[in-house]
Specification:
InterPro entries: Cro/C1-type_HTH (IPR001387), Lambda_DNA-bd_dom_sf (IPR010982)
Strand content: 5-15%
CATH architecture: Orthogonal Bundle
Protein name: HTH cro/C1-type domain-containing protein
Helix content: 40-55%
Organism: Reticulibacter mediterranei
Number of strands: 2
GO molecular function, one term: DNA binding
CATH topology: 434 Repressor (Amino-terminal Domain)
Length: 80
Amino acid sequence: MAVRLRVKEVAQEKGISMGKLHRAADVSYKTIKRIYSDPFYATTTITLGKLARVLGVSPGELIEEVPDEENSSHVVNGDQ
């Protein structure tokens, strides 16, 4: 199983833009942009906690398990 970030979906549901999210969470805009464009991006638990606080959800609500096949296009050189 792979872990997929749901930050983009949750932020859109709550009407929070990337700019507002990065400022309120004190996370770089580059990191937010990367998470939005690659939901399989490996981020830290600290960043996940900051984003969850701003979005008003638990950190667990920002991740979901998906079958490995869905993540196969993100595997580089056989590394996961």
